[in-house]
Write a structure and sequence with these properties.
- It is a single chain.
- It contains 9 helices and 6 strands; from the N terminus they run αααββββααββαααα.
- It has 198 residues and is mainly alpha-helical.
- It has a two-stranded antiparallel sheet. Strands 2-3 form a two-stranded antiparallel ribbon.
- A hairpin with a 4-residue loop joins strand 2 and strand 3 (67-68).
- The longest helix has 23 residues, at 136-158.
- It starts with a helix and ends with a helix.
- The chain binds zinc ion.
- Zinc ion is lined by residues 38, 40-41, 43, 76-77, 79-80.
């Protein structure tokens, strides 16, 4: 079932408590899984859209069995969701499939240089192109996040008090945790930053 149909179904039948409860359960599980980020671009977006049915990919909802296939569900921001739309790889061409954020390790397919993503595989390339993962606003926001990281790193490098320094290092490392926005580019940048410090 595609997104529009899922929406239509809820709109047409808003008192369907089964559908709504399934949706709520799925949503909670997915939010925990993605750390409340878009599964594709890693941006926080729930402060803008929280609660909107239209921002869940509901392809896993099977109207026949009325069950949810959680593995086929993920949370995406409006922009990624829209770009992904109904893209489907040509049949039997695995290389043209999008990266599945619920199953694939993105670092196998993608790499980052500063705020920009690069592909390691054809699937990475297809995903960057289809989802537009290097779109201007994303690159700008990633660049801002990296700039803030660099500022914190300078503070850490300049600090001479060992106990303050080790606290600053822990805080710095935490900035690239999976629950942080843009943690993919941040963790790659962090390797470089901390390595340079020695
Ligand atoms: Zn997104």
């Amino acid at each position: 079932m595609d997104l529009a149909k899922f929406e239509e179904r809820l709109k047409a039948d808003p008192s369907n408590t089964y559908l709504l409860s399934q949706y709520k359960v799925a949503k909670e599980a997915l939010l925990a899984e993605t750390h409340k980020k878009c599964a594709y671009c890693e941006a926080f977006f729930l402060h803008v859209y929280f609660g909107d049915v239209e921002h869940i990919l509901a392809k896993g909802f099977d109207p026949v069995s009325r069950t949810l296939d959680y593995m086929n569900l993920t949370i995406a921001c409006a922009c990624c969701n829209n770009n992904k739309s109904d893209y489907e790889a040509p049949q039997d061409d695995d290389d043209e499939r999008l990266i599945d954020p619920t199953r694939d390790d993105p670092s196998v397919h993608l790499h980052a240089l500063g705020p920009r993503l690069f592909h390691r595989t054809r699937r990475g390339e297809v995903t960057i192109e289809v989802i537009e993962l290097n779109r201007d606003d994303l690159e700008r926001r990633r660049a801002e996040a990296l700039k803030a990281l660099e500022a914190e790193r300078s503070r850490y490098v300049a600090e001479r008090n060992p106990s303050i320094k080790s606290r600053l290092k822990r805080e710095l490392q935490r900035k690239a945790n999976p629950d942080q926005e843009f943690s993919f580019v941040k963790s790659i940048a962090m390797e470089v930053l901390l390595h340079a410090e020695g």
